[in-house]
């Protein structure tokens, strides 16, 4: 059965653009292949602590935005693997000297969001990135080292400024670090 026939029969569409496709359409897959990690610390309006690097896999625009929304809010769990690969690429680009290893710390989702989604999407994304990094020989740990210090609103539908305000210092570290020479990464 061809992909077009399968899409017609089952109603599958690309999460990036809505075109008939079993997964990502060719155009959106090409956009993923051209991800351009970039330093965004200066774009965060003072939310990043002084001296902490902040990187993005790409600009938060289509088809990325729709894919992330599909992953987090519409149950497109299969996107964890390709999103994890892009996150791993970003980590490798931001910190090329990974000899000491990487420890991925996911920004915790609100407990209500985890219940509604059926899983913790940010931790799932961190695990997917870890698999990719381990595949190229990088030592990786993944853990829940943050907890909510206060309530946060669901991020869905919030613009950049409202998202920034919503997440301003909502988490606190719990537990201990992973030792000297370790890298800490937070995914959201």
Strand content: 5-15%
Specify Rg, calculated over alpha carbons: 17 Å
Bulk shape: globular
Unreliable stretches (pLDDT < 50, length at least 5) are: 169-176, 178-182
Tally of separate helices: 7
Distance from N terminus to C terminus (CA atoms, Å) equals: 37 Å
By secondary-structure content and strand pairing, the structural class works out as alpha/beta
Strand order of the largest sheet: 4-3-7
Helical content band: 25-40%
Helix and strand element order? HHEEHHEHHEEHEE
Q: What features would you describe in this structure?
A:
The protein has 188 residues and is of the alpha/beta class. The chain has seven helices and seven strands; from the N terminus they run H-H-E-E-H-H-E-H-H-E-E-H-E-E. The chain has helices at residues 3-10, 26-33, 64-73, 80-94, 111-117, 121-135, 160-166; strands at 38-39, 55-56, 102-106, 140-143, 146-148, 171-173, 183-187. The strands form three sheets. The protein has a three-stranded parallel beta sheet, with helices on one face. It has a two-stranded antiparallel ribbon with strand order 1-2. It has a two-stranded antiparallel ribbon with strand order 5-6. It is globular and about 50 Å long. The N and C termini lie far apart (37 Å). The model is unreliable at 169-176 and 178-182 (pLDDT under 50).
Keywords:
7 strands; two-stranded antiparallel sheet; three-stranded parallel sheet; 188 residues
Short characterization:
The protein has helices spanning 3-10, 26-33, 64-73, 80-94, 111-117, 121-135, 160-166, and strands spanning 38-39, 55-56, 102-106, 140-143, 146-148, 171-173, 183-187. α4 packs across α6.
